Amino acid sequence: MKPVFVFCITLLTALMLEAVPFPEQFVWFRPEWALLVILYWVIALPFRVGVGVAWFLGLMVDLLQGGIIGQHSLTYVIIAYTCAVFYKRLRMYHRWQQGFFICLLVSINQLLDFWIDHYLGYAEPTLMIFMPAVVTGLLWPWSFIVLRSVRRIYAIR
């Protein structure tokens, strides 16, 4: 398979995981799959994957979830840019330290999403908005291993 095709499959898989329905009582524990995959690719291939891919994937998440068009695009672009600025440092960290940084970035994403939703009257203040960031940070080491093995097997450079 061509490396570009495999890269697109990872993004499509992330979109499919975003669409998996969650029970109502566990909705706060839903990881940010699309952002997790984007952050991996920004760290792994910062000169090939960046804010353009983040914008496109954010737009797809907006369409998938039926939200405001551009909301996830805006937040994903901000987070991908921040990650691209710090990618050299992130590569030097251990996986658990990277997971903490990913948790911080996803927390910023959640906060930006909440501000937009609250401004429009769709969300009420709660600290549970940060639970997806914690879950995503905890999933980072395993998703890193899976995506790195995919990148190495299919020689994505």
Describe the structure.
The mean pLDDT is 95. The radius of gyration is 15 Å and the shape is globular. The chain has one domain (3-153). Helix 1 (3-19) packs parallel to helix 3 and helix 2 packs parallel to helix 4. It is an all-alpha fold and 157 residues long. The chain has seven helices and no strands. Involved in formation of the rod shape of the cell. May also contribute to regulation of formation of penicillin-binding proteins. InterPro entries: Cell_shape_determining_MreD (IPR007227), MreD_proteobac (IPR026034).
Give the mean pLDDT: 95
Classify the oligomer: single chain
Please indicate the percent range of residues in DSSP E strands (runs of 2 or more).
under 5%
Q: Whole-Å distance between the termini?
A: 14 Å
H/E element order: HHHHHHH
Radius of gyration: 15 Å
Reported for the largest beta sheet, the result is: none
Unreliable runs: none
Summing up helix and strand content along with how strands pair, one would put the structural category as mainly alpha
The number of helical elements comes to 7
Report the strand count: 0
Q: What is the helical fraction, as a range of percent?
A: over 70%
Shape: globular
Number of spatially distinct domains: 1
